[in-house]
Amino acid sequence: MWGVSDTMHAAVIHEAGGEFELEEREIPTPDSNEVRIAVDACGICHSDEFVKAGTYPGISYPRIPGHEIAGRIDAVGDGVSQWSTDDRVGVGWHGGHCFTCEACRRGDFKMCDNVETTGVTYDGGYAEYVTVPAEAVAAIPDSLDAVDAAPLLCAGVTTFNALRNSDALPGELVAVQGVGGLGHLAIQYAHAAGFETAAISRSPDKEALAMELGADHFINATETDPAEQLQALGGAKVVLATAPSSDAIESIVGGIGTDGTVLVVGVPDEPVSVDANQLVGSRGAVAGWASGDARDSQDTLEFSSLREVTPQIETYPLSEVESAYERMIQNDARFRVVLEP
Ligand SMILES: [Zn+2]
Ligand SMILES: [Zn+2]
């Protein structure tokens, strides 16, 4: 930072339910196990509401949100050997782990008892700089722009990792429920992975887009029973539920085929009730999936680059964080909102 200002701009939340305050902050110094990233882009995600509303257990303030970070490493802690300055990197929801708990000893870092969450348990990417543990960092392929990489580090890895860890094989029917921030990426991944891909939406105006993104079928859930439609196609091996609505999830359980799964990645506020007959009859399941660790994120970025999966985004400067956040929370954005600090 020679000859350069040692302060940065950041959008800070000071209390549960508080508004964004645009502040000058000291540029953070990385600890020995950390790197500092100069942030080129940071996505705004619905999960940032945990920070703004204060609904995340144990969260402390002030806090800078943001867990869809893409940028360049500009400083490296003494203990870090695998990253160097100028590396293009990103960080997602998984913000680090302890390496010593039982889950970590088994290599299941996402289930770490002491897991860190970017922009929640430590300051995130609604800022010009951020420091993160080295194990939370994913390399960004050269062909991916920072603004495109950012949403892939949460919405992307969540859907890509859920699908690739499911039982679905190429050629089998995979349905994506909801054509929004998660769904528009999931359709692209499902198509690129070789699944017969059905998009389910309550908005008939999303049909053209869904087909353009690679869907083989579009199911209009306002005019037809989506479960019946899926059964007419042979029954889904996986329904990836991206719309955070318990009604929508309940309406689709009857659409799974033998050994099918409704895989929930968009979390409704209210409980989901399920007709157990439908599960017993299909030997099916309703299950959940949460994002991935840094290597999963890097796999997502690499696959996205390989198969040209790109998010549809709106970009805003950090100074417009308030209105950018409103676009996201009101569900007006098409489809992911990205800040460029
Ligand atoms: Zn997110
Ligand atoms: Zn651990």
Automatic annotation (TrEMBL):
Alphabetically, the GO molecular function entries are: adenyl nucleotide binding; alcohol dehydrogenase (NAD+) activity; anion binding; zinc ion binding
* Signal sequence range: none
The terms describing its cellular component in GO are: cytoplasm
Query: Enoyl reductase (ER) domain spans which residues?
Result: 17-339
What the entry lists under PROSITE patterns is as follows: ADH_ZINC
Q: Which cofactor does it need?
A: Zn(2+)
In the record, biological process GO terms are: small molecule metabolic process
Keyword field: Metal-binding, NAD, Oxidoreductase, Zinc
Pfam families, per the entry = ADH_N, ADH_zinc_N
DNA repair is among the record's keywords: no
Q: Which family does it belong to?
A: Belongs to the zinc-containing alcohol dehydrogenase family.
Q: What is this protein called?
A: NADPH2:quinone reductase
Source organism: Halohasta litchfieldiae
> According to the entry, what is the taxonomic lineage of the organism?
Archaea, Methanobacteriati, Methanobacteriota, Stenosarchaea group, Halobacteria
